[in-house]
Structures are given as C-alpha cells and as structure tokens.
Amino acid sequence: MDLLRQLRHVRRHWWVVLVTVMVALGVSAFLTVRAQPRYVASVTFFVTTPNQGVTDAYQGGLFLQQRVKSYADLLTSDRLAQSVVAENPVGLTADEVQRRVSTSTEAGTVLLRASVTDTDQTRALKVTETLAAKFVELVQKVETPPEGKAPIKIEVVSGPRVSSSPVSPQPVRNLTLGGLIGLVLGVGLAILRGVADVRLRDSAGLQRATGSPLLGEIPYEGSAKSAPLIVGDAATSSRAEAIRKLRTNLRFVDVHEPARVIAVTSALQGEGKTTLSCNLAIALAEAGWRVLLVDADLRRPKVDEYLGIDAGVGLTDVLVGDVQVGDVVQRWGDKSLLVLPSGSAPPNPSELLGSKAMADLLLALRESADIVIIDTAPLLAVTDGVVVAVQADGALMVSQQGRTSRTQVAAAARSLHAVSVRLLGCVLNMAKMPKAEAYQYEAYRVVAAETPAVPEERTAPPRHADGVNGVSDRTQELTRLPR
Fold it and tell me: Does one domain contain both 30 and 48?
C-alpha cells in the first residue's frame, strides 16, 4: 500500500485520530492529577588523595576514577541503607531507603552524585544528609591506604539540598507525551480501519471492482430523500448536473455501436438504481430524445411511486398476453418520456422476463423509441437483473458509496460477464462531493441564473426510417406491437 492511500485512510477516518488523541490526553491528565508529587534531594562528593609530582597525579587520577565506580555501588548497598535507618529513623525500612537512592558519575572526573527521591520533601532531605555522613564514615573505615601512601579523601562539594518544586509529575511533559502517543495510535488505527474496510469509498475502487469505466458520480444531497426527481427546484442542483454528465458520457460510450436498450441494475437493493433510472430518463427526454422507461423489477417495483403513475396494469400483463403494450404505456409530464410500469406481481418473475415474449417486446420497443431505459432487480438478490441485461444492448451498474462492499460489486460484475453482458460502465451514487467543487458549481449556477437566456441550437435526435418524430405518433405505434 502506497503512502497516498494511507493518507486517504487517515483523512477519511480523521475522527478516529481525534478520539484517540483526546483519550490519550485524558488518560495522561488523569494520571498526572492522581500522581503524588515527588521531590529529589541530592549531594555531590569529590574523591581525591594527596600526591606528589605530575606522574603520581596522573596515576592517582586514573586510580580514583576506578574507585568512584565502586563508591557508586557502595551508596546503594544494603549495609549503608541499614546504617541510615539506624542513625536517623524516618519511618522507612532499609529496603525502602535503598530503592530511593540513585547515583551518577561523570566520565573522566572524580565527582560522584547521590540522589534520594521521595514524596516527602523533608524526609528526602533528612535521608540525604544521613546518607552523606554515613557514606564518608564508611569509606574512611573500609579504605586502608598502602604503607607510604596517602589515604583517599572524600569531600562534600555540593548539598545536601532538596528541590523546591516536585520533579514529578510534569504536566507539560506528560500531556505532550500522551498526545504524541495518541496521535501515533490514532493514525495506526485509522490506517488499520481503512485497510479492513471493504466498502466502496471512491470511484477508483468501483472501477477496479467492476472492470468498467466510470460514467458518473452522483453527489449526495439531503433533499433527495424527499424530492428524488430532478424536476422543479432540483433541476438546478449539483445532482441534476451530475445526471446530465452521465447522460452525455452514456451517449458517447461507443459512438460506433451506441446502446439504445440499457438495463440499469445494482449489486444490492437500496443503492438508488430506480431513482437513477427515472432521472436518467428525464434527462434524456429533456435533451429531445424519445425515451421509454420500463419497470422490469417485478418483485419490488418503485418506478410508479417515484413518477406518480398507476402501476395496476403494465409489463407483466403485456408479457402474459392480457393487454397490448400501447394500452398500458403512459406519458409522463410534458416531456417526450413514456413509462411502462411493472403491472401485476407475477409468481415467476425470472421465467417471465426470460421468455420469448420479453425478447419480442424489447425488439419492438427498440424500434419505437430512441432510447429504452430498463429498471431491473439487484443482481445478487435474484437472477432477474441478469436475465434482462442479456437481452439489452448493455448494462449500467449503480453502486452506493459507503454501503456496498468491493466484493459484492465484483461478484455482481462477474455475474454479468459470465453471460457476456456488455457492461457499459458504472455509476457511484450518493458520492461525497468536495466542498471546493460544490462551491464552484453553486457560484457558476448563480451567475448563469442571472444571465439572460440565449436560445441554444439543439442537435435534432436521430430520425427513424419512417421519419416519425412525435411522441404521440410513437404511442400510436406502440399499440400495433405484437401481443
């Protein structure tokens, strides 16, 4: 995984980093408040011996540096701790005194420092004073100089003294360290969460999963739930503009073999395929195309609810031969948009959609409209969507960002490729639109709204061999289709 993808995971899961840092800071603050203040009392010794001559001074210095290391161990010995407790009882045992004593030496010198850390400032000072006195006494007792040599001399050159402020806890250091630890853990958790998250998060992942080009990204809008169609005020929204971009891209997917019968499907239910089918049909009709929208989701039809039409009689009744298609096709609005609702709920949708009657119907509809949009069932739920897509010129797969997993989308695409369905492309629905892009569109839309409208030359839609252009003529032609 490259660095850029890891940064995307961190940016997407920024709240994980924030929560982790806040928790780490909270824990650090809690431990800092609950910790007892600790004070340090220290004393510094200077180890020396009288000597004569430069040579003796050099050799004596090397000797004393070696002895200082031994004296450091002596300061933390249990024998010295017992002497301190016996000399000045301060409520501590010899083991407790021993644990509180620490030593340090400076390389190349004969200085030795002893420190006593305690929660009681006065007790730390008393222990240090007694420790210094007993240490000097003990060294004088155990060190017996060779005959003719001067004895080793230990002097206190600094202290004993105790710090006026506690050395721990240190709020600034603790909070800074806690924040850094929280930041590292948060970034790690964000990356781990991003790697473990198999849901679709961007258009690149959708393209890789389907192996098809991205034809559109439909941005998320809160108003789409109550007003799903791109009509009225929604016609100037960024969602409507994205549908128009999809319309343009779809028309130029293959200029040599344009798709006139398009099956719109998805991997799972609730990804917005029906809404997209309706809006795409509306956008195509606005551009002057004669569009027929067919609701082929016979199990859970929704086209009639979105468009507000009667779905009592429709596709099912045409396929079983009860009515002619021209009798049930309904005009929607003032656009060149015809709608064939689902009709009665059949007991065998898959068999009905895969019948010869369905193939004959699509062949007739192809000759009666410029573009036929078919809303089909989800691919992973039932086989209806595949059955319809096989008979169409191509399929358009819709996936909702953050809901469908890459595995599910890939499985849906494989089900289409397995029967040699032409997958025209994919659409990422309810995509998160960058704020900068949304701002640019809104700013441009306002300017465009304030500019006087100028008549725009529109390219006429393709004419059929019979030369008939009117929607009403096409409706009459649908009545002559075979039963």
Answer: no
